[in-house]
Structures are given as C-alpha cells and as structure tokens.
Write a structure and sequence with these properties.
Dihydrofolate Reductase, subunit A; 380 residues; globular; binds ligand AOF; Cytidine Deaminase, domain 2; binds zinc ion; zinc ion binding; 9-stranded mixed β-sheet; 16 strands; 30% helix; alpha/beta; hydrolase
Length: 380
C-alpha cells in the first residue's frame, strides 16, 4: 500500500529534506556516515512525517532505528526515505533493512548505495524479500555529495580532501614574517570554523604553525566540542613545544607527520605533551612526505574528511599531486601589496575544477569547486 501523494516530485522533495537533515550530524558520527530517515504516511488525506531519524552522534543507533522509534505503530504502511541503503549486517542492533520489514513499512526510497561490503546490495535485497516496494537512487548524486567523505574512505581508501584558502584582493594568501593577517571578515571566518566542525581532520604544514601559531580548533558558540584532529606536516620535527597545537594536544588530538630518524628526546617530549607521531614514507622524487600514503594511513585510522588549511607549500603539494577533491576560496577585499602568492587563483581553478557554489560572506566572496566528475544538479 502506498499513498496517493507519491510522485517522483514528492519523492525528490522528501529525499532532499532527508539529505538536509542528515547534514546536522555531519562530522560527528565517527566512521559511520551521517544518514537520515524520514517516515511519511498518509493520514486524513495528508502526507504526515511520522518519524525522523539521524545517525546518532558517534555512529549508533542508525538513522532508521531512530525514525522507527519515533513513529512507533505509525510506521506501518509508511514510506521510508533513507539517504543510504539500509544496512544488512548485525551490529549493536539487528540490520536496519530487517527492522523496516518488521515495522511493516510499505515502501522504501533510498538515495546512495552503500559500498560497505557487509551491505552493498544486501540491504535492498532484504527489503525486496520482505515484500517492500523499493525505489533506489533517488537524488543519489546529492546524497553522495553529502556523505562524500565516507564514500571516499570506503571506495578509495583515502579521506576526501578539501583545500581551503583565503586570498587577498591582489592574489596573496599572507605575508612571510607577518603572522596571521586578516584577509577575510567575520562571516567567512565563522564559515571556516563550521567547516572545521564538520571535518574529521584539519591539516597544515609546520611552516604555518611556526609562522602563525594557530589553534586550528572550532571556536563557534555551541560547537566547542567539535574540533577535528589536527595534523601537522613536520618532516624534520621542527614544531616548537610551545606551539598552541602542542600545548593543547591533551584536549584536541594532534598528529605530527614526520620523516626518518627523529631526535628521541624531542619525540618523547612531544609524545608526553599528547601528540601522536606518524612515521611517514618519503616521496622517492621530492624526498618530502608521501601524501597519498599518508592519506591512506589517515583513512585506515578512520578519518573520512581532511581540511587542508595551508600554507602555500602544503597547498601546492596537494594541488600538484591532484589530491584536492574540493577547493574552497575565500576572496577578501583587503589588498596586501606583497606576500605569498596564492597557489591557485579563481580563473585557473575554474578551468581545472567544477564550480559548485558561490556565496557572499559580508564583503567577501566564497567560491567552491569540486573535482570534475558526473554532473550533479542540486547544491547541498
Ligand atoms: C544504516 N543507517 O544510519 C548508517 C549506516 O559500525 P556499524 O555497525 O554502525 O556499521 C557501520 C556501517 O553501517 C557503515 O559502514 C555503513 O555501511 C552503515 N551505516 N547504515 O542503515 C545509518 N549510518
Ligand atoms: Zn543500520
């Protein structure tokens, strides 16, 4: 039994709402993607949302469990809109696909397919075997964008990499020896903190730590508990023990990516301060840290998204090795007259990447690009 409002347009609207809902827990569900479920049924001639669920903080319970709990008996005969194929494996609870069958849900509409080998097709198969009508792939591209980090870790064994840079009106990202120079205003800065909150890790080169001594935490009101892991590319372990990221390493995880033999006493002092030392492979040509291997290591540690925030050398390395999946440019009004040139400018970025979003942040402009891939119509 399905209800009369169900048209392709209605399905898309419900799925778009589910995808938006799923973003609330983005970056806070551990190694799990943040999934959302809406349970909708016809009551008194109207479509009514009888259950809503988002993957819980930390990753469990899953979205379907939460939505079914809210709906109770009203789940019977309802249509479930789920942003990811419901799971087929036993975790702390039985598979979500079985739970949907048990609850008497009539129809399930899903967006993204789940590449997790424990699920991959089995979730849909359980639903069909249980007599449920299944429509898969509704707004798949949009859902895939919303959980791109999870999908990247599952299918490419590396995190999704976003490179974010603030560029002055005359094309500089900072000035050597001048510390942190404000290039963008308070709205852009708040947006950066929101991006940090949604990322699993934030990565900079040691030059940025020495130059700017940033905290690299999320400092938005109400979001203080969301700071991502901090990763510093520091091949020769030059980071000062007085750096803010070292002094706060006990509270916010800090990883130092190093190369080769490291002075044992420094190693020990930094370890005691709470830093994790990641011994990296060297790139055979440049002798620098091999970034693809580092990214693999980070994915194996369960990190799905990495926000690269600088400086120029680090940004260039990621760009040159084609490791940037998303590029975010904050274009400020301030002119610096001299400084470190931006490793990529909007025109070059537009030729290389696909423009997905433009926004005004007060007097600043934000442009977001994505690696070129299949076309995607709706913005997340
Ligand atoms: C769902 N609904 O809300 C999410 C799903 O460690 P576990 O047992 O939680 O399993 C993790 C896997 O569960 C993950 O790789 C993905 O396949 C699925 N995530 N599935 O039905 C959800 N977050
Ligand atoms: Zn599940």
């Amino acid at each position: 039994m399905t209800f009369s409002f169900e048209t392709a347009g209605f399905d898309r609207r419900m799925m778009a709402a589910a995808i938006r809902l799923s973003q609330r827990h983005a970056g806070r569900t551990g190694t799990n993607p943040s999934v959302a479920t809406l349970l909708v049924r016809e009551e008194h001639g109207e479509p009514v949302i009888v259950g809503r669920g988002i993957t819980a903080l930390g990753g469990r319970p899953h979205a379907e469990t939460m939505a079914l709990a809210e709906a109770g008996e009203r789940a019977r005969g309802a249509t479930a809109y789920v942003t990811l194929e419901p799971c087929a494996h036993h975790g702390r609870t039985p598979p979500c696909a079985e739970a949907l069958v048990e609850a008497g849900v009539a129809r399930v509409v899903t967006a993204a397919a789940d590449p997790d080998p424990r699920v991959s097709g089995r979730g849909h198969a359980i639903l069909v075997a249980g007599g449920i009508a299944v429509d898969a792939g509704v707004l798949a591209a949009e859902a895939e964008r919303a959980m791109a980090g999870y999908l990247s870790r599952q299918t490419r064994r590396r995190p999704l990499v976003t490179l974010k840079m603030a560029v002055s009106a005359d094309g500089f990202i900072g000035r050597l020896g001048a510390g942190q120079i404000p290039i963008t205003g308070p709205i852009a800065n708040a947006q950066t903190h929101l991006r940090r909150a949604r990322a699993d890790a934030i990565l900079v080169g040691v030059g940025t730590v020495i130059e700017d001594d940033p905290q690299l935490t999320c400092r938005l009101p109400g979001l203080f508990d969301r700071s991502p892991v901090r990763i510093v590319l520091d091949p020769r372990l030059k980071i000062p023990e007085t750096a803010a990221v070292v002094r706060t390493a006990a509270a916010v995880p800090t990883m130092l990516a190093v190369l080769g033999e490291i002075d044992p006493s420094r190693h020990e002092a930094l370890r005691r301060a709470g830093c994790t030392i990641l011994a990296c492979e060297a790139d055979p040509e440049s002798g620098r840290i091999a970034l693809p291997e580092l990214l693999e290591d980070l994915a194996a540690r369960g990190l799905s998204t990495v926000l690269v925030e600088g400086g120029a050398m680090t940004a260039k390395s990621f760009l040159n090795q084609d490791l940037v999946d998303r590029l975010v440019l904050h274009l400020g009004q301030v002119a610096l007259a001299e400084g470190v040139p931006a490793p990529i400018m909007p025109d070059a970025a537009a030729r290389r990447y696909r423009l997905v979003r433009r926004a005004r942040y007060g007097s600043d402009e934000m442009i977001e690009f994505e690696r070129r891939g299949p076309e995607c119509s709706v913005e997340s």
